[in-house]
Amino acid sequence: MTAAIDIIKLALADAQVIAEGETPNAATTDTALKTLNGMMALWQLDGFDGFTFPAYAAASADLQLPAEFEMPMRYNLAVHLAAAFASPLRPDIGSLAATTLKKLKRFYLTIPELKMPCAVLPRRYYWNVEACEWLACP
User: What's the domain of life for this entry (predicted)?
Assistant: First the structure.
C-alpha cells in the first residue's frame, strides 16, 4: 500500500519544489500534508457521492483509498503545491491533473433514478419500463 509521503514526494517533484529523489524537509512535508487534506476535503464536496475521504494526520500514514486515486492525487496535489510554494507549474502536469481527475469523477459518477410524482400525471397510472406495463400510482 502506498503511503501519503510517497504521493507527497512525487507531487513536490512534479511541482518543481524539490529535485527528483530529494527528501523534503519537515516544514515542506507538513505544508504538503495539510494541502493534501484540504484537497481531499474539496473533492468530498465536488462530485464523489457516497465516498468518504480520510484525513491524514501523518505523512507516513497509508492511503486508505483505492489505487485509482493515486495518479489524480499526485498530479492535482502538484498543482496545489505549485501555487502554495509559488513554483511555476509545467503545462503537462496541469493537463494530467485535469484529465486524471475527470476520469476518476466519471468512474464514480452516480446518476439518480428519475421519479415522476403521480400528482403531475394526467392519469393516475404510470408506465413501468422494467415490467412494460401500466401501474396505478400508489
Answer: Bacteria
